[in-house]
Design goal:
The chain has 132 residues and is mainly beta. It has one domain (20-131): Porin, CATH 2.40.160. 11% of the residues lie in helices and 57% in strands. It has one helix and nine strands; from the N terminus they run H-E-E-E-E-E-E-E-E-E. An eight-stranded antiparallel barrel has the order 1-3-4-5-6-7-8-9. The chain is globular and about 45 Å long. Mean pLDDT is 88; it is low at 1-18.
Length: 132
């Protein structure tokens, strides 16, 4: 009897649980500033290509970025990657009220894999339009 009650409760839990549908945004007009090692002087930079950011239930993705991203809250994706001494950290956030995207990126240890290549820190703002 207890086993049957537990089984029924589990079925109801899964049936009543809403399905999560993927939510995607087109990211355009991304402009900002980057600073490269060794001077770390900020200079203007931009992204030429349109990107598509998608939220899944617990993860997400951005076209052109192969970093594995985790979802934090309703509007934030963050990811960390490492490769032979290089460490990368990225954050994408959607400002839903104003139709904007914020993107930050830091990479350190680049010279360990590519001698003479710079480390980087950057911050960008662009337009975000929800795809239907």
């Amino acid at each position: 009897m207890i086993a049957r009650s537990v089984a029924i409760a589990m079925c109801l839990l899964f049936i009543s649980r809403p399905a999560f549908s993927k939510e995607c945004w087109a990211l355009t007009d991304m402009k900002g500033q980057v600073a490269l090692s060794k001077e770390y002087t900020f200079i203007a930079d931009k992204f030429s290509n349109v990107m598509v950011l998608c939220f899944d239930e617990k993860t997400g993705s951005v076209s052109g970025d192969d970093t594995q991203l985790m979802r934090f809250g309703a509007s934030t994706l963050a990811g960390w990657a490492t490769n032979k001494g290089i460490e990368l950290f990225v954050v994408y956030q959607i400002d839903r009220a104003n139709g904007k995207v914020f993107f930050t990126k830091t990479r350190i240890g680049t010279g360990t894999l590519i001698p003479g290549a710079p480390d980087i820190v950057g911050a960008f703002v662009g337009k975000a339009v929800r795809l239907r």
